[in-house]
Amino acid sequence: MNSDTLSRFEIVARQDFSDVTYLLEVRHPLMAKAARPGQFVIVMAHEHGERIPLTIADYDRARGTITLVIQAVGKTTREMQQNCKLGSTLYGMVGPMGIPSVTSHARKVICVGGGLGVAPIFPQAKAFKENGAYVIGVLGFRSKSLVFWEDKFRACCDEFIVCTDDGSAGIKGLVTEGIRLALAKHADIDEVVAIGPPVMMKGCAEATRERKVRTLVSLNPIMVDGTGMCGGCRVKIGEEVKFACVDGPDFDGHKVDFDDLMQRLRRYKDEERAALERWSESCRLMNQEPVLPLTGS
Amino acid sequence: MARKKTIRTIPQSRTKAREQAPQERVRNFSEVALVYRTEEAAVEAERCLMCPDEPCIKGCPVGIDIPAFIERIGQKDLRGAYDVIAETNLLPAVCGRVCPQENQCEGVCTVGDSLEPVAIGRLERYVGDAAIANGWVNIPYIQQNGFRIGIVGSGPAGMACAADMAKAGCDVTVFEAFHQPGGVLRYGIPDFRLPNEVIDAEIANLRKIGVRFECNTLVGRLFTIEQMVDELGFHAVFIGTGAGYPSMLGIPGDSLNGVLSANELLTRCNLMRAKDFPSYDTPMPLGKRVAVIGAGNTAMDAMRVSLRLGAEKVYCVYRRSRTEAPARAEEVHHAEEEGVEFHWLTAPVAVLDDGKGGVRGMRCIKMELGEPDASGRRRPVPVAGSEFDFETDQIVYAIGTNANPIIGQTSRLRLNQRGYIDTDPDLATSVAGVYAGGDIVTGAATVIEAMGAGRKAARSMKAYLGIRDAEAAEAGPPIFGIDARERNFVRVRA
């Protein structure tokens, strides 16, 4: 084994979907080989960085790469948006983590992605399709300008519903609207898989609860190590406490305590805001630097 | 030839190690205990009686030739002392600091029968620090044998196993899931007990004897144990993944935002350097009043880290009494000096909500000690009607860990009922060529016990691979009149 393959994480492609959403394709042949739908990685952008979990949105075994789709929401993800260019490397990337999703049993499924969740739902939709299921894709975006990967989903979905908050593309409304349409049309849905913000996944679970359609959600609590040794990512599933990093991240949406999850996601909101403000301020100062000597000359 | 030392002729009291003053050290992460000065080490070395039956060696889980290294300190031959230790222990600067010597070498020291035992740990550290300062490394002549060894986990068990296999001539790769090697030495034990530079120096020594470290590698998910043997071409594998999966109490309020495991607190602070936030990105805001549940070494570390992160008040809440506390006596003493308030015979029954997702306090109940339980410790029994509320805004659980499920989920290794890896007395698992040791086999124990397990597994792996082991001579009778103890000459490269 060449030690190079395990310790250099080169960015071999980058694509920007909008001013906040970007895609990184990272070289890691062993991980491309091991990755399964539903799994995630933990990334450290630089030596002083924090460890952040990101779902594997795609993998290409032939190219030896995995794909991450990232939304710039705080200090780390904005810093990466600025610094992760083609040919640059990540300081650390470990995975694939979590238990892979099971995609072999269902005959007819609805795959729901909301916002950034559209990316990680893709490998599951693709795997369901490859396993012979009838796949209905339901994707939600705020507006038309944020829509991405429509072509990739069309290629692996038998039906495809885009929902936008403002109705600028597809149907107007939330993804739960799309789920209701699909459930109304098909009486024989085996499973719904939903990935997105917790409030969206909670809505999806509520939309299917009455019909008792099995609904899986991919939880996104705060993580540190991602290997089950700190318990920072613990979630309440019915009466049980589970660690999302090693027992999940997929859980039965009808059993998840979403309010608890959302409360725990706010744990460091003050520090997160302060870190972002401090960083934005330092960027502003840095950007001024080249201007100053010019005005002086 | 000096006249024979007796218990009456040696210095009667143990040489104190200088320490940072409590009020000073509680504001920094620098080491609490300072290393012996040359003259202090010489005085303490003088206290060793060089007993012929050497109980201390048997008390050491890795069997360091303690009288021999102490004798060399006495002769001012520090390099010689280091060479003696390095034959059996590649991490003297670590072990001298973190071993519970009172239960090991120092616990059986003859001098300790009537006086304070010889400060073996402090002397070992003195030698280890000298080795780091001078860049000494004991690189034996290594003849490559072509065997490839994969080691899973870079903590004390993995490091000890890696060292022995590399010295035996194997090509050793250590896989670590974190971005830096060291395991619990790195993420768990804080800088004021074990500075990162010491770990770096000891790992650099392992690299010098040819051990490779592959960080960011999560075995069990990136590849399985079986793949290591079949596809990746490792002739033998050692699993030293440690004890993960911290226990929570399972009381109401456990999931509130002010409740976290000691592992999370320590990982954020030590490995991710939250203590240097915001120059490092990982945050670890702490409440003003921190209650740590438990009284093991992890609990003591969590308390002392909390003080240094700026907590105004730190409490230790433990359901048994001080006598049963599993932490090293010295750690409890240090925590007391630094102002931790101990609440013995007290158990939490509920975490109280502040209405905003955080913690406002804890409801506790007083305990009394009943009959001894299976572990031999007296079982704590709640005192009816003794509940009381306790104001705190941060609660840290340091009540032990359960087996990490990853390896179990992805391999066919046989596990025991509690989910730990099942091994035979030689530390062989149910899969041929795969060995395991340390906390993933025994549950949470000490650094040196993990190192002992790593060395034991290395011996078994060498036997499995048919590598003739010089250590095997240890047990045998003298050959041609040469005492088995003289096996210890090592061919050293300049």
Strand arrangement across the biggest beta sheet of chain B = 3-2-1-4-14
pLDDT averaged over residues of chain A: 88
Count every beta strand of chain B, where a strand is a DSSP E run of 2 or more residues: 14
Shape of chain A: globular
Residue share in helix of chain A: 25-40%
The strand order across the widest sheet of chain A is: 6-1-2-5-4-3-7
How far apart the termini of chain A lie comes to: 56 Å
Q: What is the CA-based Rg of chain B, rounded?
A: 23 Å
Characterize the biggest β-sheet of chain B: 5 strands, parallel
Question: How would you characterize this protein structure?
Answer:
The complex is a heterodimer of chains A (297) and B (494). Chain A is of the alpha/beta class and 297 residues long. Chain A has helices at 3-7, 29-34, 75-83, 118-130, 150-156, 175-185, 198-209, 244-247, 258-265, 269-288, 291-296; strands spanning 9-16, 21-27, 40-44, 52-60, 65-71, 89-90, 92-97, 108-114, 134-141, 159-164, 171-172, 191-195, 214-218, 234-237, 240-243, 250-252. Helix content of chain A is 34%, strand content 30%. Chain A has a seven-stranded antiparallel β-sheet. In chain A, strands 11-10-9-8-12-13-16 form a seven-stranded mixed β-sheet, sandwiched between helices. In chain A, helix 6 (175-185) packs parallel to helix 7 (198-209). Chain A is globular. By secondary structure, chain B is α/β, with parallel strands linked by helices. Chain B contains 17 helices and 14 strands. Chain B has a five-stranded parallel β-sheet. Chain B has a five-stranded parallel β-sheet with strand order 5-13-6-7-8. In chain B, strands 9, 10, 11 and 12 form a four-stranded antiparallel β-sheet that branches. In chain B, a hairpin with a 5-residue loop joins strand 9 (346-353) and strand 10. The longest helix of chain B is centred in the C-terminal third of the chain and has 19 residues, at 447-465.
